[in-house]
Amino acid sequence: MAAARPVWRPPTALWVLLGLAALVFVHEMQPARLEGHWRLITPVAVLVGVLLLRRLWELPPAVTLCAAIALTVFSGGWSQMGFGNLPLNRLLVLAAILQVFLRSPGAAHLPPIRIRGVHLAMAATLLYAVASAAAAAELGNEVEYLLLIDVFGLTPFLIFVIAPAVFAGERERDWLLATLVGLGAYLGLTAVFEALGPHSLVFPSYIRHLEFESATEVAAEAKAAGPFQAPVAMGFACFASAVAAVIALGRWRRPWPRRLAGAVAFVCLFGCLLTLERGVWIATLAGILVATLATQSGRRWLLPGVALGAIAIAGAFALSPQLQHRVTERATYEQSLWDRKNQTATGLRMVEAQPLLGFGFGRYDDESLDYFRQSPDYPMSGYYHGVTIGAFTEVLPIHNTYLAYGVELGLVGLALWLLSLLWAVGGAVLAHGPPALRPWKVGLLAIAAFFLVVSVVDPHTAPFPMVVLFAWAGLARGADPEPLREPRRVPGGWTPAPAPASGAA
Fold it and tell me: What is the per-residue pLDDT for 474?
């Protein structure tokens, strides 16, 4: 680890001011939280929150970032859980970033942050997207503003900057591994309870409420969407957790943690099936194939693994004919195919109309209707929910991430975003590093392949996939060792030893 550096401990007065600022924010944004019985509960909750943040400031930033990643699964659901508009995951990400750059006590031994070309590419990509949103008058739109922060780039890019230093140590990487395995246990079981029952075990309860309020499918036949309320994000999270569980299976030595990791890997892959999303199924196979072909041991286990997977699926279908019916019905479902065909044709027309700079970030909903055309071979669907364009409802996003960015940001913006993504992943995989990072590099190949494939057939609207992908890429990239300085000669011929290099596992 790096030599200890001076640290900053905020004075007590600053923590008091933070608590007062939080109370003022609550009063302005949600005054009802300071009325009635909340008049006592809210100040106590703010006090507890400030004390927790003060304690967190003393801990390594890896603790904060792991907690932020875990809580990102609930992003978009905080109000349904009774937290109002309090984005706990964003606050923890901000806290982790401040811990690194302001040198909290837990960050004293972290290696320095290295700014590389990929970070400059990310900055250019983000500035381009902000300029596009400003030109399209969408920066004031809360939905588009949060997409810029959580999904498109700001939060994932900042996490990528600090992740090599935050997870430079073996202990910190083990914390992230335990976080993802624990998260996988929760998500995998939630997928099973949500899709097959008992539904009373699904937590938080807003997941069940979402199912029962659906107008097009009964609760027992709903897709496994989990706390994301989105099957595609649920599929990515289950797959990433399964990859982490496989890494843990090879790393952990005690019997019961190994059994837990194996069980989590199985239930998470089963959760990918329960999303009932064909894009998730294809992406899962692509991720597994890429990871197995990347290593000699993986190539040796490829055929036995395929056989075991087929046997497991056949066994699940035998035990649950209802599940087999749902999977078969979903595999032959034509409505979503019509949607994608119409959206793809519409998106291509829009790119042709404004190829370089696009229509502006967030402008698809307002501009796309004029570019829909009736096909002679299938119904005109894909703009609203339903078979045809009819009564007003929420506009469906393009079910192709690349085409969506091409429409709104143009080919220039799409190229910048792809450059940032591929440079981050490719640079991490090819970077030299300690042998301990090799399983993480192989795992990065798997989740990146999943992400790139599923982005072809599904919209990219949830923050969790980008946050995990860029945190994982930063970890796999590793921290560069500090350059050794020429030892300084002192009187008497004694030469002090150089400071230890940072970034050692």
Answer: 96
